[in-house]
């Protein structure tokens, strides 16, 4: 599936930068265009793979290239004022060759948190292609303002996109790691999962596959809107010399071995499907009640079979209660592992979001209280008790 990716804010820019690198490394053909938008000049300069002419600095007259300091209302205002500058960078994208837009952003800060929903709304007005969001939730240790920003941005972003894919930093943070090192690893995880998912719709002939996932299946799984999460599991395998058993049969290979191999391949796939669905999701949630799902099995063609995918698909149907579970292959010769990626779309039972909203409401109340008290507190500090002093003028 070919995407026009727009990274908004620092996290968004860094993640899209990594997608470009992934795309080059794997030749996956998913990033048709990459744009980074920010109010902070230094963040744009730190990017490595997005071309310089595709880095858009907005809000210069307001914040002088220094960012909005986690003020997402200002982030949204600036994005509205300067949306034409972003549009200019998108104008050179061959949109007729693009299957969808993907607006990527951390939701806890200011620039991306406020700007990403504004841009999504703008893109939906201009283009007929679907506009998806990839929103990153802050860690719960980041503090009240980040949580409040994320809760407000999440609500708005979901409304403005055709589907919001969510990644929760909180579920992935490791203790005792530097923030930067931690983000690098987390960003790798994001790009790996979504790279396989979107790459699955980009297989172009050549490979031996039983039922290759088409980009329309990804689009249909995301259609209907709401919130999505992605599961992943993988197992290392050795690349076989003859793929699919066909060659071995033609050359008089052992039928018993083939039978054993098929059973092992099927079992490996079904267990990878379970591990992916029940393991750590990009946004942890109850999978029961997911409205639609897509199962992608990636790996060397010899290790993929229809039976395994069918079984995995049925199991997912039972677990989610959904009647819309799609599935298919993503053949990758020489990859050295079989991976299962599961997209669960339209999830609604997400305790983490409820918790985020609760903390955000408390933070909002605290902020209001402090603001109310602030004026009288300052007054009592500055003025003497008996009002004996007079100010200069
Ligand atoms: N996964 C991931 N999350 C990040 C990364 N950098 C920041 N974040 C998260 O994204 C949130 C927003 O941070 P930024 O993207 O730096 O903020 P911004 O949109 O540039 O906005 P301002 O800096 O306030 O102008 C943070 O609260 C973190 O939770 C990153 O590299 N990877």
Automatic annotation (TrEMBL):
GO BP terms in the entry: cell division; microtubule-based process; regulation of cell shape
A Gene Ontology term for the protein's cellular component: cell division site
Record GO terms (molecular function): GTP binding; GTPase activity
Keyword annotations from UniProtKB, A to Z: Cell cycle, Cell division, Cell shape, Cytoplasm, GTP-binding, Nucleotide-binding
Biased segments, Acidic residues type: 382-393
Residue ranges of the region described as Disordered: 239-262, 373-393
Keyword GTP-binding carried by entry: yes
Tubulin/FtsZ GTPase domain residues: 2-205
Residues engaged in binding GTP: 10-14, 110-112, 142, 169, 187
CDD domains: CetZ_tubulin-like (cd02202)
Domain of life: Archaea
InterPro entries xref list: CetZ (IPR032907), CetZ_C (IPR048737), FtsZ/CetZ (IPR045061), Tubulin/FtsZ-like_C (IPR037103), Tubulin/FtsZ_GTPase_sf (IPR036525), Tubulin_CS (IPR017975), Tubulin_FtsZ_GTPase (IPR003008)
Subcellular location: Cytoplasm
Pfam (any one): CetZ_C
Its job: Involved in cell shape control.
Record family assignment: Belongs to the CetZ family.
Protein name: Tubulin-like protein CetZ
Organism from which the protein derives: Halogranum gelatinilyticum
Gene it is expressed from: cetZ
């Amino acid at each position: 599936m070919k995407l026009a990716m727009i990274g908004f804010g620092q996290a968004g820019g860094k993640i899209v930068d990594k997608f470009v690198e992934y795309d080059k490394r794997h030749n996956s053909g998913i990033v048709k265009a990459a744009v980074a938008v920010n109010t902070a000049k230094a963040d744009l300069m730190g990017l490595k793979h997005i071309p310089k002419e595709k880095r858009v600095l907005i809000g210069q007259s307001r914040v002088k290239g220094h960012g909005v300091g986690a003020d997402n209302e200002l982030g949204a205002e600036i994005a509205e004022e300067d949306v034409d500058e972003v549009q200019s960078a998108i104008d050179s994208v061959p949109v007729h060759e693009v299957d969808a837009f993907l607006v990527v952003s951390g939701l806890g800060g200011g620039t991306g948190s406020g700007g990403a929903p504004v841009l999504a709304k703008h893109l939906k007005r201009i283009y007929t292609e679907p506009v998806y969001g990839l929103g990153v939730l802050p860690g719960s240790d980041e503090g009240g303002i980040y949580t409040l920003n994320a809760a407000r941005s999440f609500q708005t972003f979901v409304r403005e996109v055709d589907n919001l894919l969510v990644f929760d930093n909180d579920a992935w943070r490791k203790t005792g790691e530097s923030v930067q090192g931690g983000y690098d690893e987390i960003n790798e995880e994001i790009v790996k999962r979504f790279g396989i998912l979107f790459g699955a719709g980009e297989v172009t002939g050549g490979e031996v596959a039983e039922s290759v996932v088409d980009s329309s299946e990804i689009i249909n799984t995301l259609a209907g809107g709401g919130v999505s999460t992605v599961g992943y599991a993988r197992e290392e395998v050795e690349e076989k010399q003859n793929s699919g058993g066909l060659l071995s049969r033609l050359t008089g290979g052992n039928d018993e071995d083939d039978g054993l191999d098929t059973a092992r391949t099927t079992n490996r796939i079904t267990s990878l499907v379970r591990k992916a669905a029940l393991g750590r999701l990009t946004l942890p949630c109850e999978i029961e009640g997911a409205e639609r799902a897509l199962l992608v099995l990636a790996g060397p063609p010899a290790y993929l079979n229809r039976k395994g995918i069918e079984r995995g698909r049925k199991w997912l149907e039972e677990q989610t209660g959904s009647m819309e579970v799609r599935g298919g292959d993503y053949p990758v010769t020489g990859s050295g592992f079989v991976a299962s990626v599961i997209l669960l779309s339209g999830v609604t039972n997400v305790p983490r979001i409820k918790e985020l909203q609760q903390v955000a409401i408390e933070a909002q109340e605290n902020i209001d209280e402090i603001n109310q008290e602030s004026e009288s507190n300052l007054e009592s500090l500055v003025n003497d008790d008996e009002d004996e002093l007079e100010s200069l003028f």
